[in-house]
Amino acid sequence: MNASSPQDIPWPGNCDGARIYLRPVTATPGAADQFELILITAGQETRTRLGRADLENRAGEAGSAAGQRLSGLVNRIESPRAPVCGLGMDRPRIMGVINVTPDSFSDGGKNFDSTTAIAAAMEMHAAGADIIDVGGVSTRPGACAPDEAEERARVLPVIAALAGAGVIVSIDTSRAAVMAAALEADAKIINDVSALTADPDSLSVAARCAAPVILMHMQGTPETMQQAPVYDHVALDIFDYLEARIESCEAAGIPRARLIADPGIGFGKTMAHNLQILRDVSLFHALGCPLLIGLSRKFFIARLSEGEAAEARLPGSIAGALHAISQGVQIVRVHDVRETAQAVKVWQAINTDITTTEST
Questions:
Q1: Which residues of the chain have pLDDT under 50?
Q2: Residues 6 or more apart in contact with residue 31 via CB below 8 angstroms
Q3: Residues belonging to the active site
């Protein structure tokens, strides 16, 4: 990657076929005054920091498709994010994870029994989870999925109980029939690790309902995703994929205002890929959707430390979550809700005008 000054960069208006990206350099994308302009020209990546005035001037100079592209990216970055199930996106939101599976990487099947899963989810809700994400299929590397009937049997009783208690529930599934059944049981959000590609009926199910949809990037499938994943420019390649999936959703009748983007930490990525995505995570604000990051207990945390087991990766998980919200990510998906909620409250207090808080 080559860094260069604004005077040195090949301006996109003069670069046929350039891929153009814009990353806000701020924790508040709607108030960004510094941007990183990223160009891919003939396979070469160039990054340059630009102030807002300089960016506007140069976009105006382009007077071309490149200028339109930049204006569109700025508009997406700065457009207000619609609430998600009544939750304002003006502060960080916490999604608690409940895996109703016998083989989850994160808890080893601790919540496989529905009664235990419901109790754990209610505890998460009381501890500060804004959303509870319920899944019946393990997506750990090498995992094999149960059949549809088994998946439904795992998740539907949990969803019904939580929804009946007033909890906002998301269904973590890639099967259209399970999505539909979960929505019937009063789940409010669809969370699909395949970004509505695994099942040909998923797009139509999502289009017919009013539920928000989380589109996640994954290279390969859970069975194959960690078999030597390769990217040319990891964050930019993922941006392209998610941008295309958003456009497909819009074409199917799902408005951008109902979509949430997740770059998929740990899903078909090496440790180096995960770290680069996190460094560049504010790039994804240019998709024009709220962002979700799920890095809780992921294996790369142990690789960076001392090889800890999943349940011993809390400090690294919190460090990653705080980095994400410092870059404007609206939703963090976590296993340890109480601890994360405390960390987020402290982060918010530090980043709030002291005149609005108690001096003691």
A1: 1-7, 10, 12, 357
A2: none
A3: 298, 333
Cα–Cα distance list, 174 to 160, 171, 190, 203, 353 (Å)? 19, 9, 9, 11, 42
One-letter amino acid at 75 equals: N
**Whole-angstrom Cα distance, residue 297 to residue 293?**
12
Partners of 188 in beta bridges: none
Residue 149: count of CB within 10 angstroms of its CB? 10
For residues 73 and 266, is the Cβ–Cβ distance under 8 A? no
Cβ atoms of residues 184 and 210 within 8 Å: no
pLDDT at residue 82, as a whole number: 96
pLDDT at 106: 54
**Fold assignment, 93-350:** TIM Barrel (3.20.20)
